[in-house]
Amino acid sequence: MPETSIEKQQKTALGPTTGPEATREALIAAALDLFGANGFDATSTREIARRAGANIASIAYHFGGKEGLRQACAQSVRSQIDAIMASAFARSSPAIALPVRPDIAANMLEAIMGHVVRAVLISPDAARFVPFVLREINGHSPVLDTLYRDVMEPTHRRLCALWGAAIGAEPESEAVRLAVFAMVGQIIYFRIGSQIVTRRMGWSDYAASEADQIADTVCANLRASLQMYKTTDTGKERP
Amino acid sequence: MPETSIEKQQKTALGPTTGPEATREALIAAALDLFGANGFDATSTREIARRAGANIASIAYHFGGKEGLRQACAQSVRSQIDAIMASAFARSSPAIALPVRPDIAANMLEAIMGHVVRAVLISPDAARFVPFVLREINGHSPVLDTLYRDVMEPTHRRLCALWGAAIGAEPESEAVRLAVFAMVGQIIYFRIGSQIVTRRMGWSDYAASEADQIADTVCANLRASLQMYKTTDTGKERP
DNA sequence: GTCTATAAACAGATAGAC
DNA sequence: GTCTATCTGTTTATAGAC
User: Fold this and answer.
1) Residue closest to sugar C1' of C3 by CA
2) What local confidence, expressed as pLDDT, does residue B75 receive?
3) Considering the domain boundaries, does residue B136 fall inside one?
4) Which among A237, B61, B101, B227 has most CB atoms closer than 10 A?
């Protein structure tokens, strides 16, 4: 499909077309996939270009080099995670900014977690960028600082606010922060350990019904934990 | 320290000395570290040899090549995980093979999880081999089959047996298998996400007191989940 | 913007001295 | 067993044609 002129494309990472911007997006998608699967150093620019259907030199042209492509991947991941979390928070509640009632906060938490589980387990995008983020976290990568500050820390803080409201505890207390990590840790594990989980469960991969079962498990644990914290503590330690 | 003759060393991975076997162990330790941190393909044999204080050619001599070193690393990991789990199961109960009483099974589970959390978070060995295993799982590595069959599947099955006994449910039911994955997933996440957790908690790294706090969190979630399953799944009422 | 050709550095494996 | 030296292939980056 030859085109004489292509309008400047938006960089919302959701509109690839058939122009010079399309190769840029294709390169990022291929790089996210390969960086996540094999790691940054282990991935050759030739392989990225081949999978993206582009030329090797196009990487240097569009991103300045392999390292620039890594930065572009990190930015893409940030917008993808932001989109998932924005959608999850938006659907969890009509229009309330500061929920005070514990049962409302608990219901919001459960709705958010159920949404995130399904998005993280089913979406092909998440299957790509979660391994990428994992690699960047493990080796102390130059994009880790930005990723933590702009994505993980704000998201975790918002979840802590809900958790604290749900059980009537200080949102930034150590117990709440750790409990939220334990909750999201379950989701992350089901994503990165999918090879193990699917083998043990006899599944071929994660589809809708499998994600529903996992969401049920995670949400059940969430309810159990909230209920226990609510009954046992007033902001104190274990007996 | 020049030695004229060295006795043949045992391969129990726990007895490095100053002979030809010492370089073998040093190479495995260095490779585990680097494979886990940067990935198999991204790690050069030169870097491994340099960190191990050995020569590049020694890798080919001892393991036949880079791939042989990977296999040796997998075998080392298997024995390390076996040691942790054996210790955890041994300390959880005096000598009972088949616990039938639910409260005994629940207590065993809690003891095992507490032990595993501390071992996985504090032990420098675990900090090495967990990233290695993660890499091997993510990319479909040739050692994944063995690792799953010999380590993960049997361990998960034993935990399912305890979980089923604790709540009075079929150990191999889908709900129990997923619940066990959610439980161990928390532990794995705290290990692989340590860079995120420590930043958010304001910790420099995982020491004894930090591992204790995380163990408390995980064990509290375990108790909450077991209690909930016990009250909802079966007709039995807790005292 | 996209391509080919090439340069400079680095990879794993191996032969052979000791 | 351990070492040096070297072979062969691949890597990223870049120069320049179109």
Assistant:
1) A55
2) 97
3) yes
4) B227
Domain that holds residue A227: 74-232
Asked if residue A181 belongs to a domain, the reply is yes
pLDDT in tens, A91-147: 887 556 665 789 999 999 999 999 999 999 999 999 999 999 999 998 878 889 999
Positions in chain B whose pLDDT score sits under 50: 1-14, 234-239
Nearest to A180 by CA among B229, B197, B118, B206: B197
Q: Are A173 and B202 in contact (CB under 8 A)?
A: no
Q: pLDDT tens for residues B155-196? A: 999 999 999 999 999 999 999 999 999 999 999 999 999 999
How far does B91 lie from chain A, in Å, by closest CA? Answer: 22
Of the candidates B24, B146, B22, B165, the residue with the CA atom closest to the CA atom of residue B81: B146
Contact yes or no for A137 and B192 at CB 8 A: yes
How close B194 gets to chain A, by Cα (Å)?
9
Looking at residue A98, which CATH number applies to its domain?
1.10.357.10
B50 strand C contact, CB < 7 Å: no
Residue A13 clears pLDDT 90, i.e. is over it: no
Q: Out of A137, A200, A227, whose CB is closest to B195?
A: A137
Cα gap B11→B7, rounded to integer Å? 12
> Taking the C-alpha atoms of A159, A162, A167 and A169 in order, what is their torsion angle to the nearest 10 degrees?
80
Is residue B4 in some structural domain?
Answer: no
